[in-house]
Structure formats: C-alpha cells, structure tokens
Specification:
259 residues; alpha/beta; 6 strands; 43% helix
C-alpha cells in the first residue's frame, strides 16, 4: 500500500459519527478517530468526511462519489447500504449490484479503498434482529465485490464487542463512543498501523437486570425512536434532510486526539 497522506470518508451516520459526540455537540466517530491517529505521524496529512446521516446508497453515489473522483485521496473509506437494508423492503441482490458499480467507481480513483461489512444483530431487539439474515446476505455479496475490485474489507460482523447491545446508543442504531473507538482500532489494525489498545477486549460482565427494566426500556425505545421513525418514513421525510457534510474538503486536522 502506498503511503497515506490524505483520507476521505464516504457514507452515512455510521461514518459521520453518530452517537459519538464531542463536547460542542458535533459528531466525532471512528473516521475522525482514524484521521486523528494517522495525522499524528504524518505532517501535512489531510482529511475530509462527506458522510451524512440517513443517506441511501444511491444518494451517496450521486452526492459523494463525484467528490472522491475530484479529490483523489490516498485512502477512501466507503460504507453504504445500511439505510437501504433497514427499510421496510429491500432487494439485497439489486442493492449489491448497485453497490458493486459504486465500488468500481471508488476504486477507479486509484485510492486504497476500505469497505465494511454490516454488524451481527443476533443479540439485538427482535425487531432489529429480524434484519440479521438480510445483513448477512449483503455482507457476502459485498465481500465478492471487494475481491473483484481489490478493496480491503473491514469485518464488523466478526467484532464480538459490537454484538453486545451495550455498544449501541439509546436509539439502538448508532454506536456509542466506545463502539466507535473500537471500530477505529479495527480500521487502524487493518491498515497495519500500530495501536496501543485492542478492540477485542471483552466488555465488563453485565450485572443481572430485572425483566421489568428491560420491558420499560423496550417501551421507551418504541415510543422515542421506532414510532417517530415510522412516522417520518410515512411522511416521506429523511433523517438527513437539512444536513451537510461536516468536512467537505481535504484539509489538515487541527485537533489531535487518541482514537
């Protein structure tokens, strides 16, 4: 792999960084953490993040890939299709064909391209868990695309700590800060970068929780997140409406933090 002096992140809320919040209320996320680590040893390192919450694959292709083709960084992360997967209906074969065409364009920039599998949802709430087979099927189709186009797969499905519901925020769709930290470590490991911590470290043993507490939490989640999501979808509103990329151009980083 050629030396990395610039990094461009493409995608949706996972790459934007929800729910890993900075003190000023802006999202940090795994991609920022990776960029911060890479920049520490690379003077002049530049970073852009075009990811916007709620974006579907076709929207990422239309809005973000042309920017990647213009900027031509050394490293590109491309994670897309997650919001398509969670829609009421999804043809995974058709989604995979469109993903393959998009990945071909991204790799044609000449960058080293990272792509990501979906998470293992086996321990999540039954409503979310029903998507597990769909995610697994899409994962294998994406792996085949990665092999065809010479991109590198970051295996999120195999990250056991992220299969733990405690790695997920209150909406159960976005990782906590600790979850993003572990993804950053996994990405850096995939790139061959030296890191101090290990993403494999198990989470602490969880104290027994009365079933009544689980029921109350499930009801709160249905009220605060599931019902509003369904209402927005029925009204044709998208999560990312009104949002713009947080770092639209390749620029040096000013804030350096540990991943």
């Amino acid at each position: 792999m050629r030396p990395i002096s610039s990094f461009l992140a493409l995608g949706d809320s996972f790459t934007e960084g929800l729910d890993d919040w900075r003190p000023d209320g802006t999202p940090r996320g795994w991609a920022d953490r990776v960029a911060e680590h890479l920049s520490a040893a690379r003077p002049g390192f530049r970073y852009a993040n075009l990811a916007v919450r709620g974006k579907l694959l076709d929207q990422i292709v239309e809005d973000q890939i042309p920017v990647a083709e213009r900027l031509r960084p050394d490293l590109i992360s491309f994670c897309a299709g997650g919001n398509d997967i969670i829609r009421f209906s999804c043809d995974t074969d058709d989604l995979a064909r469109r993903f393959d065409a998009a990945l071909e364009r991204v790799t044609a920039t000449g960058a080293h391209v990272l792509m990501f599998t979906g998470f293992d949802l086996g321990r999540m709430h039954p409503i979310i868990r029903r998507l597990r087979g769909r995610v697994a099927c899409f994962n294998e189709l994406m792996r085949a695309s990665a092999e065809r186009h010479g991109s590198t797969v970051v295996d999120l499905w195999g990250m056991a700590p992220l299969a733990d519901p405690r790695s997920w925020g209150r909406d159960r769709l976005h990782l906590t800060a600790e979850g993003h930290r572990r993804v950053a470590l996994r990405v850096l490991e995939t790139l061959g970068e030296p890191v101090i911590d290990d993403w494999r470290t198990p989470l602490p043993e969880m104290a027994p929780t009365p079933w009544q507490d689980w029921v109350r939490e499930d009801l709160r989640w249905m009220r605060d997140f599931v019902a509003p999501y369904v209402r927005r979808r029925l009204r044709g509103h998208a999560t990312g409406d009104g949002y713009s990329p947080k770092r639209p151009e390749l620029l040096p980083l000013r804030t350096l933090e540990h991943p």
